[in-house]
Design a protein that fits this description.
- Helix content is 63%, strand content 4%.
- Helix 1 runs antiparallel to helix 4 and helix 6 packs across helix 7.
- The chain has 10 helices and 3 strands.
- About 16% of the residues have low confidence.
């Protein structure tokens, strides 16, 4: 099992993220044409459209419809990626326990709907920021081509980056739920986690950089932080001792053995084991999380 990605779902997430980026690029081309070249909304003060007024409403309606038309094609890709993540989680769980399932699982339908709603939220955020920016373009008499370039930056910074984060988050979440549903069906009552190791930082350019911005954000976790005070250390040790007493000293967490495990995930692993109900929602702990649950 890869210590960087114990879930084994990174290729699925990466493929989904690339598909999302391609869709946003298609939408960006339409923005460049309609706003920058044709000036369909009368940003040029000498335009006939600018004398008619109501450009903000017209732009908002067009932007929303065009965005939805392009992005609705992603639903099948999102559904397939989440379903595959759920299935891989199911496979990992049965492999670790060494038993086959005898009852049906809930499946990933709720996860798919939740992820699609999250994606619609991203599109709503892009629409809001783009419409606000367009209003300022009208007030400041911004040339159409300059306005189009600014809108493209909004699409990249909000739409592309957040979609990439969603791609990785949704698939790992599906893997975690598939694992937990399977373990519960097999009679496992307590679970722990295997934390992923942070990837080394690589300088990226172009589309590859856009597609991985959200993942590279985890590098921030490695920045030095202020040393905790003696009272904080004392409180932390007291909580840890109580936890060990409550769990009877159980040890159930395997780590990658590498020094660069995500601190947040490492703490989650250290605080285990958990009941199945307690474990739900713990993973993913951040957008690029790739931790997995294991039987206690």
């Amino acid at each position: 099992m890869n210590s960087i990605d114990p879930t084994g779902t990174h290729p699925i997430s990466k493929a989904l993220a690339k598909t999302m980026i391609r869709s946003w690029k298609t939408f960006k081309k339409e923005i460049s044409r309609v706003v920058g070249q044709v000036d369909s909304f009368g940003l040029n003060p000498n335009s006939i459209i600018s004398a008619q007024g109501g450009q903000v409403h017209v732009f908002n309606t067009w932007f929303d419809n065009a965005q939805n038309m392009v992005m609705n094609k992603l639903r099948n890709d999102l559904e397939m990626a989440i379903s595959r993540g759920y299935s891989i989680g199911q496979y990992h769980a049965t492999s670790r326990v060494g038993q086959s399932l005898q009852i049906p699982l809930p499946g990933p339908s709720v996860l798919i709907e939740s992820a699609y709603l999250d994606f619609q939220g991203i599109m709503a955020a892009v629409l809001q920021q783009a419409t606000r920016a367009f209003s300022n373009f009208l007030l400041n008499h911004t040339p159409p081509q300059k306005a189009a370039r600014a809108l493209l930056m909004t699409v990249d910074k909000v739409g592309a980056v957040r979609s990439t984060a969603l791609a990785f988050y949704a698939v790992v979440r599906a893997h975690a739920m598939g694992t937990l549903d399977t373990l519960q069906a097999l009679g496992i009552e307590r679970v722990g986690t295997i934390p992923e190791a942070l990837p080394k930082y690589h300088k990226l350019t172009g589309d590859e950089k856009v597609a991985t911005d959200a993942v590279i954000a985890t590098v921030r976790l490695r920045t030095p932080r202020p040393r905790p005070s003696s009272s904080q250390v004392t409180r932390a040790r007291r909580v840890e001792r109580k936890l060990e007493q409550a769990l009877g000293g159980e040890v159930d967490v395997e780590t990658s053995g590498l020094p660069n495990v995500c601190p947040r995930c490492k703490q989650i692993a250290k605080n285990g084991p958990y009941t199945i109900d307690q474990a739900r929602g713990l993973i993913p702990a951040h957008p690029s999380c790739a931790c997995i649950f294991v039987p206690a």
